[in-house]
Model the fold of this input.
Amino acid sequence: MRADRRVETARALLDSGDHDGALSVLEQTLELTPDWPELHFLIGETAAASGCRDRAVAAYVRYLSLSPGDRLGALPHLALLGATPLPDGLPSAYVAALFDEYAPRFERSLLVGLDYQGPAQLLQAIEAVRGPNASFGSVIDLGCGTGLVGERLRRRCTWIEGVDLSVAMIAQADGKGVYDALHVGELTDHLANDTRRFDLVTAGDVLIYLGDLAPLFEAVTRRLADGGLFAVTAEAAETDSTGVDRRLRPSRRFAHSADYLTRVAGEHGLVLHRHERTVLRRDGPDAIEAHVMVFGRAPADGRPRTLAPERPELVQHEVPEDQAAGHHDLGGQIKHAEMVDQ
Ligand SMILES: C[S@@+](CC[C@H](N)C(=O)[O-])C[C@H]1O[C@@H](n2cnc3c(N)ncnc32)[C@H](O)[C@@H]1O
Done:
């Protein structure tokens, strides 16, 4: 209890902006509870906020030694501090805990608070490739969350299932009765252990938790039917002059360049049918720019089954005026989209 009270005091100091004072109280608390994982994590966060990088790194490393599952997500912090290389993805236990906690308010927060457009943009891109009445046999929705993508696709398919790391998100999706089957699990592992083929695979706002996309694209290609589609959104990064084409952002989400996505897809036998640049959602005052991409697996006869126009076209996404706050730096709420030649 004494340790708890000290942590409360430290949190109050943090809230008031006194990072150094909070760090000092937390260091004293270590004398009482030297093996409390959460205390080391909090010291890591506080030391980083105080500019004490080496102390932060040591604290996160100690946290990981006490809590190797990394439920609080020390690994991405270490990478952001430059202490470790870019991780291949975020720890599963961290993502699951994050969304288990977030699930009850996820939709209100995303749809109302952050103006999340992912499911609509995915469907729009799929329709642009397959036509306005596009329909599919079997669909798997990766990182299905509460089922926002499933809701859009339900009447377009005969079978749709979802997979997600978070039990609480899956429970929300289950409550909607939209999916024919739901699975709790890591999406790449899930696909790798499956033996069926799907006509459409979707991943809405999920690649942001994966750094290295090669294992995912490999697993998707194996499970995609001939002529099947893989539709994704991804936070957009640009490839820089040194060739860096994916980044971990301070938000602890990954962003990928279009070059990276297209290259990795190509290495696994998928071709790009459509690429749009959009505003996916907001993050506080910032508009999050994204790629919406539809990849296809060439059918056995080698001809892509697509109804996409032959010439590139410009697509505009307008944000309703009453939702436009915060997008002013993005050219009047209209982002362009580019069409990829077939
Ligand atoms: C931002 S939500 C998006 C949910 C839904 N696709 C949508 O568009 O509303 C991301 C979801 O992906 C899940 N997720 C993240 N990484 C995952 C992984 N590696 N395997 C399975 N699910 C994952 C999270 O648990 C969360 O429910």
